[in-house]
Amino acid sequence: MNKNLLEIKNLEIQYVKNAETVYAVNGINIELAEGETLGLVGETGAGKTTTALGILRLISGPTGKIKNGIINFSGKNILEISEEEIRKIRGNDISMIFQDPMTSLNPVMTVGEQIAEVIQIHQKVSNDEAMNKAAEMLELVGIPGARKNDYPHQFSGGMKQRVVIAIALACNPKLLIADEPTTALDVTIQAQVLDLMNDLKNKLKTAMILITHDLGVVAQVCDKVAIMYAGEIVEYGSLKDVFENPKHPYTIGLFGSIPSLDEEKTRLTPIKGLMPDPTNLPSGCKFNPRCPHATELCSKQIPKDTEVTESHLVKCLIAEGLVEFKENWEEENE
């Protein structure tokens, strides 16, 4: 068994402004072993990016606050170390690929300078050595090293994303957080970038958290899956557990929203309604206003994490045996 590289326990993150509190992340638990990939899946506003920023301790003050929890990375609680120590970890042991490559790169610095900057911050090397390493990193992601002197505007969207990946991997991090790295790319380039990330992850033995809306991407890349809704992880397990035996109504709804090649359907079954307002979350189960199986109990009782198998957890009163699963719910919803 691989030991856990990352352990998150009961993490709570809030943004407080004036009289309003945004409950962004509400008591999540995650375990990630060395070399593993976790897919963090959910709608916009679920708390995925906030979780990633929490791991890097980049929650901005004075409004953002990590209210509770433990984030153990390589046996050290990130929330208890000094600002100087966390700076040594960011970009070196933990790197992040941000969502939009267009805004992640500095337009007035060459791409080589931007990669070299990360290397020089964390490693004692000269300017020439850092630039040579930058050229090597560009070659690693499929861009000619000679282009280290080019500026971001001279690259296409897909190549910009490769540059951002090169920056993230420049110091051989133990953990890579990829925040929807393929959202801004077309399908062909998306496949190339995913293959590249997979190859580099395997070559460098890097663990990865992949934040995405796309279950197809998760199936291609991930070992574990965490389904996130309204700041909570409602289903957590191995790729096989979640894809072959989904148990939470939200997870089932996500799969129902995807066209299937095996079944003939005239229309998809969408999840009705919208993500709740994080300043005014529903009582009981957060998904109950949108859930086709919800009863009065669901609006009063907060579900517990229930083991379906040893590696498969579900946060739902159906899994606890307190609410009945309606087999013909799709017909009732039409």
Q: Strand content of the residues, in percent?
A: 15-25%
Separation of the first and last Cα atoms: 47 Å
Total strand segments: 12
Cα radius of gyration in angstroms:
21 Å
The main sheet comes to: 8 strands, mixed
Taking all residues together, what is the mean pLDDT?
89
What proportion of the residues is helical, as a percent range? 25-40%
User: Per the principal axes of the C-alpha atoms, what is the gross shape?
Assistant: globular
Strand order in space, largest sheet: 6-7-8-3-9-10-12-11
* SSE order, one letter for each helix or strand: EEEHEEHEHHHHEHEHEEHHEEH
Poorly predicted sequence stretches spanning 5 or more consecutive residues: none
User: What is the helix tally?
Assistant: 11
Structural class: alpha/beta
